[in-house]
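Input.
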Amino acid sequence: MTGLGPRFEQHRAHVSAIRAAALAAVDPAAAVRAHLSPADWAAAENVYLVGAGKAGVPMALATAELLGPRLTAGVVVVPQMPGADLVLVVISGGGSALLELPQAGLTLDDLRQTNAALLRSGAAIQDLNAVRTQLSQLKGGGLARLAHPARVLALILSDVVGNPLASIASGPTVAAAPNAEAALAVVERYNLRGQLPAGVLYYLTHGTGPLRGETPEVENRLIGSNRVAGEAAAAAAQALGFKAYWLADDWQGEAREVGRRFAQWVSRAPGSAPLAGRAAALAEDPRPRCYVVGGESTVTVRGAGQGGRNQEAALGAALVIDCLPNLAIATIATDGVDGPTDAAGALVTGATLTRARHLRLDVAQALADNNAYPCLEALGALLFTGPTGTNVGDLMVGLVY
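Output.
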């Protein structure tokens, strides 16, 4: 037992089963097999495979298995390919960091420093991509332009709220016109001028110039998303005996506030808090409740601690459900890696803060220092899966017993 309450192991078992179902629903290899068929490459003379992202390996292996001897080669990104060729691109979240070719005059280190500054600022994914797209020859449709005149078919696993294809892995197969003004507006909004390399600022200030090359023939095919995982999670909870609800896939904002908001919603839902409506709701249906939401929050880094967005969301939730004995909330990164840590998220209950007080842990200070990991580790509340091989954003699960 962890000391978080007599029912904590039951909570953990329920969350584990729900999480497993969510991840199985967005298995990258299965998604590729379901959305790719011989008709896609029947007319192609040669077939080339390009992969990027955290789910790139299983997606590429499944693609190669389906293609068999029809697969000509692996990563080939050159403009001289014949027009009868097909470039198959498998894209998933994390591709922005794994597949890159900087604009002329910029270095990979320039891009690393820029990306790190954007992440520390708490910038939303759309703002990150407004800058990153301008600095890359591959993002914003650049990969597809380099593949021209070959036809491009992209299979995309989404980790971005709303599934905007241009934002997933910075849209290497989704055309985007140069917009240095928008990128500079992001730099100013987050006060980043003093944190960016001089070469990056020079490049953005002097514009990116017109698009090069002809418009390529591209089909972008969405094959998995946060909603698919969330609906599977709710179905798994239903099978465990909960009255389960999949609510939405658009929860965004500062992580600790997202956690607080979800906890407030769950604690006020029918059958949750000791309110007048609880007795009536349970009389109508005595099953425990499960509420699932998805999305992806951000963290504005002000301290020097260790943690991730799901861990901060969990601590934010714990502050709300303190001493509510019938509630448990889990926060889960579907890729199994929450921020720069080995945890996937955390599980907190109405007894978490009682345990923290007993151990003389200051949860509010841990949040102020962006130091959620050591706090949750001491509480035995961290969730570990290891890298899952998929990536469709984050899930929050609220259990009401």
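Confidence is low (pLDDT under 50) at residues 76-81.
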